[in-house]
Amino acid sequence: MNPDTAAEQHVFLGLGSNLGQPETHVLRAFDGLARMPGSRLLRRSSLYRTAPVGFVDQPHFVNAVAEMRTVLSPEALLVAILALERDHGRVRSFANAPRTLDIDILLFGGLVRHTDRLTLPHPRAHLREFVLRPLAEIAPDCDFPGRGPVWELLAACEPQGVTRLGGVADAGTQASARMRSASLTQ
Ligand code: AMP
Q1: Which of 114, 104, 112 is nearest to 134 (CA)?
Q2: 10 Å Cβ neighbour count for 174?
Q3: Who has greater pLDDT, 87 or 177?
Q4: What is the pLDDT of residue 155?
Q5: What is the pLDDT of residues 28-60, one digit of tens each?
Q6: Whose CA is nearest to atom 23 of ligand 1?
Q7: For the whole model, what pTM was predicted?
Q8: In sequence order, what are the residues at sequence separation of 6 or more whose Cβ sits closer than 8 angstroms to the Cβ of residue 141?
Q9: Pocket of ligand 1 (CB under 6 A)
Q10: Atom of ligand 1 nearest to the CA of 116
Q11: Of these residues, 28, 40, 90, 147, which one is catalytic?
């Protein structure tokens, strides 16, 4: 085993923006994640355009997912992503308010944890098409502890107005193939 990577955890982060220039915020956030200490950015999904959830009278969102490895603890990773949000001028007003940049820890290895500061996996990720669709693009087999693989959660998710904006040429192919074969066997 490589001692440099022994303590690394495999994590997935969800990114979203609907203020200023959302695409630019998300693309720059990927660059910020690539520079994050103790961490490696492995893959980034395409960008997706998403209808707002909860507070619906606000601009559409741009969403994406990042796959990383990190030696940071979950709490240290949270501190680092909150700092990145602040660098993008994030101001917290009310729940589901428009934001320049939001980053959530979707999965931190197979860790299941609930504290005042952090719930892992993210408590709503498995219900949200804007999380599951980009996640299925880059990691369809990745498992939500106790819930199943991403492709299966996406197949069960009602459409919520998510469309791909561009990026990877054959995005979604692996997940679509799995969903097609699942529907054939049902
Ligand atoms: P919001 O920006 O509205 O997504 O809320 C951010 C706050 O949610 C953070 O300051 C965390 O304390 C809390 N939180 C709880 N679980 C998570 C998670 N899995 N990822 C990111 N933030 C989380």
Answers
A1: 104
A2: 16
A3: 87
A4: 96
A5: 999 999 999 999 999 999 999 998 877 788 889
A6: 118
A7: 0.87
A8: 149, 150, 151
A9: 78, 82, 102, 104-105, 117-120, 122
A10: 12
A11: 90
